[in-house]
User: Which sequence fits this backbone?
């Protein structure tokens, strides 16, 4: 690979992926606009990202870009074609711990699970990590006891 991807983004009109890359040998930074053809608001973002990453013309440039990032860029493009704002598209990538995942459709649920798996792998401690502690024990008991109306009554009958 003679190219190093520096930044990736989208351009809405015409729908394209914008890649800022550096040529390794000459150390020049360039911008490449990759048009996203045959992509509509009904297209599957996973298939489109895979096709773009394996395209012979763009393969060398996109080698340093992860497949998940290309999928995210295609989701943003698809949301724009469906009429959603950029803020709405970016908010859909955030993981909300209070969100009810039972109400999501299958595609949205798979995307959220993928994001959670990625976050888990990033935060996971491996045996080779310097901060790894084997057989770590922690006490999670709460010291403050809350008063409840049931505690006031006596249970002499039982």
Assistant:
């Amino acid at each position: 690979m003679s190219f190093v991807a520096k930044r990736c983004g989208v351009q809405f009109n015409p729908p394209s992926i914008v890649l800022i890359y550096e040529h390794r040998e000459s150390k020049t930074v360039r911008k490449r606009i990759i048009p996203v053809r045959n992509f509509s608001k009904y297209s599957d973002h996973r298939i489109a990202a895979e096709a773009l990453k394996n395209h012979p013309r763009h393969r060398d440039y996109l080698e340093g870009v992860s497949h998940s990032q290309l999928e995210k860029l295609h989701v943003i493009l698809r949301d724009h074609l469906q009429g959603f704002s950029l803020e709405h598209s970016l908010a859909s990538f955030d993981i909300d711990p209070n969100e009810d995942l039972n109400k999501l459709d299958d595609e949205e649920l798979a995307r959220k699970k993928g994001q959670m798996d990625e976050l888990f792998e990033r935060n996971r401690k491996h045996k080779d990590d310097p901060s790894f502690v084997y057989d770590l024990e922690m006490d999670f008991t709460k010291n403050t006891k809350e008063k409840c109306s049931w505690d006031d009554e006596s249970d002499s009958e039982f």
